[in-house]
Design goal:
The chain is of the alpha+beta class. The chain is about 25% helix and about 15% strand.
Length: about 100
C-alpha cells in the first residue's frame, strides 16, 4: 500500500487499552478498548460513513509474530481524529 492511494492504516493496537503509548496505543486509556477486533473497528468506520477495508492477515510491525490484522480507511481528516472517533464508537457499541 502506498500513501498515494489516499488511505490510512489503522491497527487494533492503536485503540487497545492493554497497551502503553510506547507499544502503539494512540488514544487515551479512557477511550481505548480491551482487545479490540477488526470487526468492531470496521463497524465503527462504516457507522462514520467511511469506506473501509479489512486486511486480516497483516501483522502489526511491533508484534510481527501475531496476525492482528488492520483496517484501511479513506482519508477524511487527520488520522488522530479518525482513530479517536473509531475508538469511541467501537466502545459505545460494546456498551
Amino acid at each position: 500500500m502506498s500513501k498515494k492511494d489516499g488511505r490510512l492504516v489503522i491497527w487494533p493496537a492503536y485503540i487497545d487499552a492493554g497497551r502503553s503509548r510506547g507499544e502503539g496505543r494512540q488514544v487515551s486509556r479512557r477511550d481505548a478498548l480491551e482487545k479490540p477486533t477488526i470487526d468492531e473497528m470496521m463497524a465503527a468506520a462504516m457507522e462514520m460513513g467511511l469506506q473501509a477495508e479489512a486486511e486480516r492477515d497483516k501483522r502489526y510491525p511491533k508484534e510481527w509474530w501475531e496476525k492482528s490484522g488492520r483496517v484501511l480507511l479513506q482519508k477524511k481528516g487527520p488520522k488522530t481524529a479518525l482513530v479517536k472517533e473509531i475508538a469511541r464508537r467501537a466502545k459505545k457499541r460494546r456498551g
